[in-house]
Amino acid sequence: MARYGKKFKAALEKVDRLKKYDLTEGLNLIKENAPAKFNESVDVAVKLGVDPRKADQNIRGSVVLPKGSGKKFRILVFAKGEKEKEARDAGAEFVGADDLVKKIQDGWVDFDRVVATPDMMGSVGKLGRVLGPRGLMPNPKIGTVTFDIKKAIEEIQAGKVDFRVDKVGIVHASIGKVSFSAEDLVENLNALMSALIRMKPASSKGAYVNGVSLSSTMGVGVKVSYVPA
Asked: Do 56 and 201 touch, CB atoms closer than 8 A?
């Protein structure tokens, strides 16, 4: 049986787990009851009416949150020549080519996001078993395999979040921090939901958005009623 701390138990008593809250009310509940001493992330789980086993329903993409993510990312870029300089000038913490591939193969993973130019993917592909499970493998679908390195880095630092439906049809993403205002969190959530709705597969039948739940990193989950903006 799960054992909860005093703060979490107190938060549980304030939340009706069966109720669907108004979006702003739900976000305020999360902000007020975040139990940790650090600035927790606000996370969303969206249940979609899709079958991820079907290729055209395996939803994956990215969106730049208009109010930012509240996070600072350590970005690694695989690039050569002029693109290497472009990456450094744009603020990438780590830039290189086969030297970084070797370093990662030896066990180093001290970075948060990875970007690569298309000509480097032959080498980067060797890292699939390391980067893939961590959600760090560069992919053109989310804009991390590109020759426009400057744009890719700027979008990540501006609050770009990647998302992908899991095997039971749920998309998980962070939409900011508990220190954000409820209004800013709503704007970020609207951006994410708009991206998901635009990606609805033609083959998906019935209700597409079947549920939206919010929580802080260490906090209680709150179900909310979501009406597209």
From this structure: yes
Residue 220, domain extent: 14-69+160-224
**Percent helix, strand and coil across the chain, each rounded to 5?**
35, 20, 40
The CATH number that applies at residue 97 is 3.40.50.790
Residue 152 near residue 143 (C-beta atoms within 8 A): yes
Angle 188-152-48 from CA coordinates, rounded to 5°? 40
Over residues 96-132, the pLDDT tens digits come to 999 999 999 999 999 999 999 999 999 999 999 999 9
Nearest to 147 by CA among 137, 136, 138, 134: 138
Q: What span, in angstroms and rounded, lies between the C-alpha atoms of 218 and 200?
A: 31
Residue 8 lies in a domain: no
Q: State the pTM of this model.
A: 0.84
Q: Tokens 């298309």 identify what position?
A: 118
Whether 107 is in a domain gets the answer yes
Residue that finishes a domain, picked among 157, 178, 205:
157
CA atoms of 229 and 143, how far apart (whole Å): 25
Say if CB 34 and CB 214 are below 8 A apart.
no
- Which of the two residues, 209 and 16, has the higher pLDDT score? 209
